[in-house]
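ugh ok fine here u go
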Amino acid sequence: MILTGPAIAAAVQAGEITIDPYEPSRVSPNAYDWRLGDTIRACDGNLDAAAPTAFTEQLIPDTGLVLRPDLLYLGITLERTGSETYAQLLNGDRTTGSLGIWVHVSAPLGHQGHAIRWTLEIRAAGPVRVYPGMTFGKLVFLTTFGAPASYQQQPAKYASTEGIDISRLYEEIDGGAR
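structure:
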């Protein structure tokens, strides 16, 4: 089940949900409005699942950065979020979608116990300027069923992610670049 806005606020107050920085005004009826961080990576060249992705990283200036439609970008959330009690779903929203920005379509699940600044997959339908700290989507919290299994205690490849992370699928592909 999805937590309501008041339930999210109560869980933050009780220490069951981490949102840092947290602004109560960003709580909506069933979600928290998260923001784009200040760093972005443009993935360079042809992408290959069997090799690490080449990229150029830059800070997004206060005057904004124009995203191009021919590139995949990896960004980061401004907020660090997580919970040992709840799972999370991170999505774009109508605000960014109306600008032709597709954000985090392929991996919206934040496992119970994973507290991170999210790596974001970002594509633009056309040139569009984005700014650090702008509202970029909605974060939903879900109750879980069954015995809890904290993501941080699993042998998962992204459990210790700090900052923006590229795909590490190449670690699983026989004959891939290592």
